[in-house]
Write a structure and sequence with these properties.
The complex is a heteropentamer, with two copies of chain A (about 260 residues), one copy of chain B (about 300 residues) and two copies of chain C (about 220 residues). Chain A has helices at about 1-30, 40-50, 55-85, 90-100, 105-115, 120-145, 150-155, 160-200, 205-215, 220-245. Chain A has about 260 residues and is mostly helical. Chain B has about 300 residues and is of the alpha/beta class. In chain B, helix 5 packs across helix 9 and helix 5 crosses helix 14 (about 265-280). The chains are: A mainly alpha (about 260), B alpha/beta (about 300), C alpha/beta (about 220). Chains in contact: A-B, A-C, A-D, A-E, B-D, C-D, C-E, D-E. At the C-E interface, helix 4, helix 5 and helix 7 of C face helix 1, helix 4, helix 5 and helix 7 of E. Bound molecules: adenosine-5'-triphosphate (2 copies) and magnesium ion (2 copies). One adenosine-5'-triphosphate (ATP) sits at the interface of chains E and C. One adenosine-5'-triphosphate sits at the interface of chains E and C. Chains A, D: It is a multi-pass membrane protein.
């Protein structure tokens, strides 16, 4: 097992290296370094921004926003998804609202939030959450609908307390849906945070990316984009994957 | 020969371009104009960078920075119209130092030319580090505009047509960028906004660059005097009432640069001053104005 | 407990007809009937899992059910499957698992158990719940004779110690005789009670056993 | 059944009406009609734009882009998701790329597509697909992992042909994931299409929305946003829901 | 068919020991052994569903399996469950379903069938596949005696008409005697073949039947 995991990590590294290599080759072939700078050039920028502290300021601002919106969107979205998946009536009532919200352009939500709440953090986080909640709701609703009714009956017949039931019967079945909602979720949130920062914040990765985009400095744009990707890769390999391996032990053949 | 322009469909440049097209000033200047309408400023940059457009509008500070980074871009003057710093009618703010601890809404980000100039101005005249002493809220121009109307922010720096509308609503100018540039030793006649074309075009098809300058000048001459030409433009100006219309018209006319070619020395001194005050953050790698930013005719 | 069902149907198919039964506390009903007649349906109704029928079922008391399929939480170990559903302690659960022959497999996940082992796990879970009425839906199917015998003994002991009542659906008359105190046979379409008799004393009376077997044969073919 | 559906539709209408009412009341209370115009005002704009044909031009342009990118993203994403969910090796190799792509800012992808491919439809569609593919992949991968191994064994032991297997064994299990990937997918795609149109197209709903945002004409912004929401509501109730009801018949109790 | 297994283990638990068997074509193996001994595991290995073991299984031929749990496609009707898996025609499938007593339920979804009905559906599916070797993992559990009898008869007929071979895991000696031509008993830990004898003539010889039952009892308790 541990050997397999070690090998997995090795392959992961190799794959990442390959990605870098592909980029380096593409940059070399392309020639115009202003359009596609080499990995070395971007790394250099990254290093400079890390040294002078800019990177950390903006990265932490963005991460805080992402985390706050993620927490809000996941919890509200999960609750709504459970409700709509469980109760036909709730679903019939809420569905038109859900579809409307789901397809409300991010720009509209963001602009309205900034206008109503003001140009501040609260508005930024609310705008992102409003964009993300319906997506989580949709995913969790489908998951809830696919719950095994037999296990539900078992839990009912043994009068399992609601919390136990949620934790041991419902959540494990929803886990794949929650996992994909989280992965797709963070990435979506971060994409919206970029827009939110562009439209009305004074710091954050999105702010920087747009700034350097204005200046046509692709190296900086990529450097900041990559800083977040690195964070997400870390989260993926340090948090998500170990967690997934732990909760999916039961799928495996042997102990 | 065609010359393709990437422009913001709602931008003020479109008034001029539309006039050129309508009165066939392009044909007279020896080229055919083609307009690529875009929904946002970033889009015009992509079109220009991607080679889908031959020209777009930007300010010369931006062009200088690009040149310093090795891109051969050339600036053809278009307008001296710039904004200023506006406060609400009932605001107690009289000078920049009154803004200490307040919130300034700035459209277009920390590299906005008006903001940079005001920053330098504050430092020079009042010894004030405006960036440090106030909170800046950067945002999309319409959002800054709306938040200013809602009094969420204490002062506003925005594109001039938004400022014109605000003035029509009674907002008061604390410092204008013209004032500030004068105080910084700059010729207020130095046009801040202009058409950007590649050096390639200037060198290989000089008649096109020249034609562009001529057509632009011809349109300005017309708009400077002819009210009928303005009436024609009115539908595309998105004005709510006559006051706004007049304010925009006056704003445009005030922004028409003089006939003389750009005073490069004045620009150089301003650039040096800003480089000194703001450092790399503000102007990028070059400490002095790179050569060849301004189009010099033939 | 009183069962008073006017009818139960799925969509347009009527499965159960009128069924009226009074069941004394501690009584052990052996429920027989051909495959597909409605035994599981009736048990689910008694357990309160299916309320979509005409009539009522009253005074049921606390039940614990062994479903016809094991119905375990695949993502929880054998012990946890017992403790989570019944709130009994882990050590009690382990003791019970040992009794049903799952010693050494306590930490296995259900999918790592043979079907017979899963059934025994489900049985242990029902026992751990210490119900007033045990609902066993063919709980002893697919067990080898020895293991089945041990499970029967365990059930008997459980029933005797706690005075637990039971309804056990089964296809095996001998199992019914061993564990039941009353025999109820469903048959017909829609199904009604075709036979309802006390099993007191029948266990050791081969003659009566064979007689009942004959009657069942006839009923099943109907 | 038919009665229940009728009732469902009634509730749906009631719910939609309620949404409109809530908006009308909010608009009334807010007062400033430039910031929050009333439904009537927006409807008026919608009507005007529909009459003069603008609406149809832009709506059809956007819909075509959405459809093309959706088809591409769903098919490639589903294939990748199946592959990565099935094969551990493929997953280990491709995962770093997936995470990188998933968290690549839309702006970066769009700008690069426009610069490399040119300011044309192909670039627009590619940019959107690139943004969406990793999301579909993630969702389908989780779905694939949750496939019931027993059914898979059954199919193998009966040597069911690959296509039959896919259609009758795999797809029905993936249906909830595909459904949520589609719903969340279209909405995500449309959000990206808006940005794509903003950054480099001269027509489409996104173009119009940004245009009127620049002019701060909220009524127009909302009118265009709503036109797409109406399309999606139609798709939801005319296509998705009937389809879902048909494929989930087996979950229901009776025939 | 040749089975030559050196050993099979799940993780650290060794389930099967060395098992060597030569099985002639058309032979019908009744596979007995206590619950959890490894019968299903062996059948899955023969079916080629589990290749993670030391040793080899050769010349198996086309198999059709009835899993211990029905394992149907819940989203396809009874008929479709037969036709999709076996590519037989819908009318053949309907005829088969009628034979296993599912007349009138052909268009029901599996979850709308009783467990016994589901098992019969799984049986019909295996028959429809017309295999060289039938693998039945307790295919007749949870059926009432009458239905079980009908199923046995059907299986016998199937085997006889097509000369089909079979491996049937069961707990019921009488079932083994009726359908099997050779008895193999697994026991021990790890399990090995503890008994391997021909059943020719045993069916009607009550004496030998009881003798075998005695030997099984001893083996099971080991
Ligand atoms: N959800 C359902 N929808 C439609 N019909 C159903 C449903 N559940 C059960 N039935 C039908 O009701 C009848 C009774 O089913 P039930 O499961 O109670 O039988 P049973 O007596 O338990 O049979 P077995 O001994 O095979 O388990 C069967 O004919 C079955 O097809
Ligand atoms: N995936 C698995 N992981 C670990 N152990 C397993 C797994 N599958 C089966 N086992 C163990 O292997 C042994 C044999 O299981 P198998 O299912 O073959 O038994 P069986 O003879 O079919 O029993 P039954 O008659 O109860 O069906 C059991 O002890 C079981 O716990
Ligand atoms: Mg049943
Ligand atoms: Mg088994």
């Amino acid at each position: 097992m541990s050997e397999a995991r070690q090998q997995g990590r090795l392959i992961g590294f190799a794959s990442g290296a390959l990605l870098l290599l592909a980029w380096a080759v593409a940059a070399h072939l392309h020639g115009d370094r202003t359009v596609l700078p080499s990995p070395a050039a971007v790394l250099d920028v990254l290093w400079r921004e890390a040294r002078n502290g800019n990177l950390w300021t903006h990265l932490s601002a963005t991460l805080l926003r992402v985390l706050a919106s993620f927490a809000i969107a996941m919890s509200i979205g999960t609750l709504l998804g459970l409700l709509m998946g469980r109760s036909r009536l709730a679903n019939t009532w809420l569905n038109p609202w859900l579809i409307a919200l789901l397809n409300l352009p991010a720009l509209v939500a963001i602009v309205l939030a900034y206008i109503w709440i003001g140009l501040n953090e609260v508005a930024a986080v609310v705008a992102v959450a409003v964009n993300k909640i319906p997506v989580v709701t949709v995913m969790l609703r489908e998951g809830t609908r696919a719950l095994d009714p037999r296990l539900d009956e078992m839990a009912r017949s043994f009068r399992m307390p609601t919390l136990t039931r949620l934790r041991h019967v419902v959540v494990p079945q929803l886990a794949p849906h929650v996992a994909s909602a989280s992965r797709a979720g963070i990435s979506l949130i971060w994409k919206i945070v970029l827009v939110v920062e562009f439209l009305g914040r004074s710091n954050g990765i999105g702010f920087q990316i747009h700034l350097y985009f204005e200046l046509f400095n692709v190296a900086y744009v990529l450097a900041y984009a990559i800083s977040f990707i690195v964070v997400m890769l870390t989260v993926e390999y340090a948090v998500l994957q170990p967690w997934e391996q732990r909760v999916s032990r039961w799928r495996r053949d042997a102990d | 020969e065609t010359l393709r322009f990437a422009t913001l469909k709602t931008g003020t440049v479109n008034w001029e371009l539309d006039t050129i097209k309508h009165y066939e000033l392009d044909k007279k200047a020896g080229f055919e104009m083609e307009i690529l309408e875009m929904a946002g400023n970033p889009a015009t940059r992509i079109a220009f960078q991607g080679g889908e457009a031959d020209s777009m509008v930007a300010d010369w500070l931006w062009v200088a920075r690009q040149r310093a980074e090795g891109k051969d871009y050339v600036f053809i003057p278009y307008s001296t119209a710039v904004g200023g710093l506006l406060v609400a009618p009932d605001s107690p703010v009289q000078k920049l130092s009154d803004l200490k601890g307040g919130k300034i809404g700035i459209a277009g980000g920390p590299l906005d030319k008006s903001w940079l100039i005001l920053l330098a101005y504050a430092k020079k005249t009042e010894g004030l580090d405006l960036a440090a002493e106030t909170e800046q809220v950067f945002g999309a121009p319409p959002l800054i505009f709306q938040n200013a109307l809602q009094r969420e922010i204490d002062a506003t720096i925005n594109f001039w047509h938004f400022l014109a509308k605000m003035k029509a609503k009674g907002f008061r100018e604390v410092v204008s960028v013209t004032e500030a540039s004068t105080a910084l030793g700059l010729d207020p006649e130095t046009p801040l906004l202009g058409y950007v074309v590649s050096g390639d075009l200037v060198n290989n098809k000089p008649e096109l660059a020249k034609g562009l300058a001529e057509a632009s000048r011809a349109a300005k001459t017309l708009l400077a005097t002819d009210d009928a030409a303005w009436e024609r433009l009115r539908p595309m100006m998105n004005v709510a009432d006559a006051a706004e219309f007049e304010a925009l018209k006056a704003g445009y006319r005030a922004g028409i640069p003089g006939e003389d070619s750009v005073d490069v020395e004045a620009a150089r001194s301003m650039y040096a001053l800003m480089a000194e005050l703001g450092g790399e953050e503000l102007v990028g790698a070059a400490k002095t104005l790179p050569d060849g930013v301004f189009y010099q005719g033939e | 407990m009183r069962i008073d069902i006017a009818g139960k149907s799925f969509g347009s198919v009527s499965v159960l007809g009128r069924i009226e039964l009074d069941i004394a506390s501690g009584e052990r009903i052996a429920l027989l009937g051909p495959s597909g007649i409605g035994k599981s349906t009736l048990i689910r109704m008694v357990a309160g899992l299916d309320r979509d029928f005409a009539g009522r079922i009253e005074d049921v008391g606390r039940t614990a059910i062994v479903f016809q399929e094991p119905t375990l939480l695949p993502w929880r170990s054998a012990v946890q499957n017992v403790t989570l559903a019944t709130r009994c302690s882990a050590s009690d659960a382990r003791a019970l698992l040992a009794e049903v022959g799952l010693e050494g497999r306590e930490d296995a996940f259900p999918r790592q158990l043979s079907l017979g082992q899963q059934r025994r796990l489900a049985l242990a879970r029902a026992f751990a719940a210490k119900p007033a009425i045990l609902l066993l839906d063919e709980a002893f199917a697919s067990l080898d004779p020895e293991t089945a015998d041990r499970m029967h003994a365990l059930t008997e002991q459980m029933i005797r110690t706690h005075g637990t009542g039971a309804i056990l659906a089964t296809h095996d008359l001998d199992e019914a005789l061993r564990l039941g105190s009353r025999l109820i046979v469903l048959s017909g379409r829609p199904a009604t009670v075709k036979l309802d008799l006390s099993l007191a004393g029948v266990r050791d009376d081969t003659g009566r056993r064979d007689e009942i077997a004959e009657r069942l044969k006839v009923l099943y073919q109907a």
